[in-house]
Design brief:
By secondary structure, this protein is of the alpha+beta class. The protein folds into 2 domains: about 100 residues, Phosphorylase Kinase, domain 1, CATH 3.30.200; about 200 residues, Aminoglycoside 3'-phosphotransferase, Chain: A, domain 2. About 40% of the residues lie in helices and about 15% in strands. The chain is built from 11 helices and 10 strands. The strands form 3 sheets. Strands 1, 2, 3, 4, 5 and 6 form a 6-stranded antiparallel β-sheet that branches. Strands 7-10 form a two-stranded antiparallel ribbon. It has a two-stranded antiparallel ribbon with strand order 8-9. A hairpin with a 2-residue loop joins strand 5 and strand 6. Helix 3 packs across helix 8 and helix 7 runs antiparallel to helix 8. The termini are far apart. The mean pLDDT is about 95. InterPro entries: Aminoglycoside_PTrfase, Kinase-like_dom_sf, Prot_kinase_dom, Pseudomonas-type_ThrB. It comes from Paenibacillus glucanolyticus. One of its GO terms (molecular function) is ATP binding.
Length: about 325
């Protein structure tokens, strides 16, 4: 990203002298603003060719709605012009720039034994899902906004990436057929975070602070749970996965069910959604990342993913 873009965005939200530290993001577009006066916050640069302003407004509105209802959310920051979204133009490119308070605390450091915190994580997701239910009595602004449906993303609407291979494509079509047949009633389907893994919240003084709601959409609640499990399992070695996923699942679901109800039928579908997340992740990388730009370890990891997907191998053996 051009330095001129970074400078314009930082100057809209910051003050005085500063530096920007790259934190990451799929497009390498998330930075920490570090001011010489001690001011620190998170700033994101969104390419207008990929992101619509309306979707950003929905994201910020949903975050504010959750915060109003008691969840700890990294709050939005307004610019010097009192705007939540700034536009930066450089040459022929336009970027939307948004900023957030830096979530206090740090990532959950112990996924393998801090099951009390994993239960709180599940409880937070359960609260989100309860608020994300859309029923006949939902009259608030947030429930009148046109959040995207689960299959509105380019990965579903655009051509399947040839790089993924035909055998993966066969599995993709099979999973999509199953997903399209699932009911979308208010107790199973609603507004979800859609990426609430362990790197999208911090733990501070025993409480969880959630952030990064850029993928919020309508989806099945069971899929959102599956995302948390899928990414947590990737942090443990193969020989410990079975034991870990069982304890993680019990703790997470225990917290979740304290805030939101989910029927046994949908809970039993969670392993299916875990495997779909694995498939989705591989297809996403195949479509949006240049194979030649990956390091060797990433390529080897993806090749192993592909082999498991083609053979129909489940990510984990989760007995429910």
């Amino acid at each position: 990203m051009e330095q001129a873009v970074l400078n314009q965005g930082a100057e809209r939200f910051g003050r005085g002298s500063y530096s920007l530290q790259l934190l990451g993001g799929f497009d390498q577009n998330v930075f920490e603003y570090i001011g010489e006066d001690g001011l620190r916050f998170i700033i994101k640069f969104l390419d207008a060719a990929k992101y619509r302003k309306a979707s950003i407004i929905r994201e910020l509105t949903w975050m504010a709605y959750l915060a109003e209802h008691g969840l700890n959310i990294a709050s939005s920051i307004r610019s010097a012009q009192d705007l939540l979204i700034e536009e930066v133009i450089h040459g022929s490119k336009r970027y939307y720039v948004i900023a957030f308070t830096k979530a206090p605390g740090s990532p959950l450091s112990d996924l393998t034994s801090d099951f009390a915190m994993i239960e709180r994580w599940g409880r937070g997701m359960g609260s989100m899902h309860k608020l994300g239910k859309k029923d006949s009595t939902s009259a608030s602004l947030v429930h009148r906004m046109a959040f995207p449906q689960w299959n509105d993303h380019l990965i579903f609407t655009d051509a399947f990436p040839e790089a993924a291979g035909e055998r993966v494509h066969t599995q993709w079509r099979r999973y999509l057929k199953e997903l399209e047949s699932l009911p979308q009633d208010q107790d199973s389907y609603g507004i979800v975070h859609n990426d609430l893994h362990h790197n999208n919240f911090h733990v501070h003084n025993g409480e969880i602070v959630f952030f990064d709601f850029g993928d919020v959409s309508y989806h099945w609640f069971a899929y959102d749970i599956a995302i948390a499990i899928y990414h947590a399992v990737q942090t443990v070695p193969e020989h410990r996965k079975a034991e870990f996923v069982a304890r993680f699942f019990d703790s997470f679901l225990s917290g979740y069910l304290k805030e939101n109800t989910l029927s046994a039928d949908w809970i039993e579908r969670i392993p299916f959604f875990i495997d779909f997340r694995n498939l989705y992740s591989y297809v996403y990388f195949s479509k949006f990342v240049d194979w030649n730009e990956m390091d060797e370890s990433t390529r080897n990891y993806l090749l192993a993913m592909k082999a498991d997907i083609e053979s129909g191998q489940s990510v984990v053996n989760l007995s429910i």
